[in-house]
Amino acid sequence: MGSYSIAxxxxxxxxxxxxxxxGKTTVxxxxxxxxxxxxxxxxxxxxxSTLDGYIRLLDRMxxxxxxxxxxxxxxxxxxxxxxxxxxxxxxxxxxxxxGDAVVLSGSEExxxxxxxxxxxxxxxEVIAAVPVGEKVKAVSCxxxxxxxxxWAAGCSDGKYYGVFxxxxxxxxx
Length: 173
Known about the structure:
Anaphase-promoting complex subunit 4 WD40 domain-containing protein, WD40_repeat_dom_sf, WD_repeat_MORG1, WD40/YVTN_repeat-like_dom_sf, Methylamine Dehydrogenase, Chain H, cytoplasm
């Protein structure tokens, strides 16, 4: 997205992109309150998180849904709890990572607790779910450092949780 555009999402279920040069507004109707918007690095796609528990990848030109991200992931093998992506009440931010090949997001607490999630952009599959603790109500934001290859997650209890690096969920510092 060029420096002349502003992307926004709102509780009315609309994602909007404003072109400040021309005054034109592009509107995508998502029908659910939007908690986060992020443009891809080339500006051709918009990532929109909504309170229906989905993160949608939209084509900026025509608003077509290119992919949708949700789902669950078993964290530590057979019989271990599954972490389900959930976003139904709180503002949860989502971002692109690894050169726009991965989507990262936090999640509200589910049956197995809150977690940070990673999805493959093309396949739409959950590639990692990193639990953050049983007492955490939500992972409200995530950040990615492309230069270093690290990602961090912030939790709703206001405490710093950790920085993850390498393969998603490989370790915390």
